[in-house]
Amino acid sequence: MTDIERPDTPTLSIDQQLALRTAAARLHGEFDGIFATETIEQFLHSSYDQFAGHSTIPNFLPLLAERFARLRLRALAKVEGHHDGKPTVLFLCVHNAGRSQMAMGFFQHLAGDRALAWSGGSEPGHEINPSAIQAMHERGINIATEFPKPWTDEIVRAADVVITMGCGDACPIFPGKRYLDWELDDPAGKSVDDVRPVRDEIERRVRGLLDELGVPALT
Predict the structure, then answer these.
(1) How far apart are CA 5 and CA 18, in angstroms?
(2) Could you tell me if 124 and 182 lie in one domain?
(3) Domain boundary among 39, 60, 79
(4) Which residues form the Phosphotyrosine protein phosphatase I domain (predicted)?
């Protein structure tokens, strides 16, 4: 990556520039032969910009940008016909900090590598809800390493099913896409005791969704 700093990107430290170059090299290795260099770098830059305005830990920005760019590139690859046929579900809520993260956690845990789950928010928060993290930990599922993120057009277009949870009119609508709306209490600001019933209802619905998709739950 020859020009990591751009006019619309905040000044990067030497460490951040190096981290982004390293991230770009990894992405090039993963998507070589699928996307051109310009596409990969544009996705990495724009993913960085998504988090640069509100991140409280600048040193993590290159890692977040790489992870989000990888997700977006995988989604675009599926849209363009490069996929293995696995069902893909997108869980959407407002802050992508509680409900959608718990749903994605259950889906990944129960489906294994036989289906894919992504998540996003209309107004992404800054961190995963601590009560949601603890409630999921009680079920042996770690969502602490996830991070709130927005959705993008390619991510929505690549999903076979879009599950909305309280984002209302802000949820993206694409003609021909299958949508399901799950009415669930928002765990924001709630204690673990209050989040557990929401967690259990999400698990019930995820298991039902897997049955509909023909993906038997692993446990």
Answers:
(1) 11
(2) yes
(3) 79
(4) 87-212
Catalytic residues: 93, 167, 171
Are residues 165 and 93 in contact, defined by beta-carbon separation less than 8 angstroms? yes
* Class of residue 77 by CB neighbours under 10 A (exposed 0-12, middle 13-18, buried 19+): middle
Instruction: Tell me the residue ranges of DSSP E strands in 57-115.
Output: 88-93
Using DSSP's 3-state secondary structure scheme, residue 169 falls into helix
**Per-residue model confidence (pLDDT) at position 10:** 52
pLDDT digits (tens, 9 = 90+) for 84-94: 889 999 999 99
Strand ranges in 3-148 using DSSP code E only, listed in sequence order? 88-93, 116-121
Residue-wise pLDDT tens digits, 117-153: 999 999 999 899 999 999 999 999 999 999 999 999 9
In the predicted model, is pLDDT for residue 5 greater than 50? no
> Which amino acid is located at 136 in the chain?
M
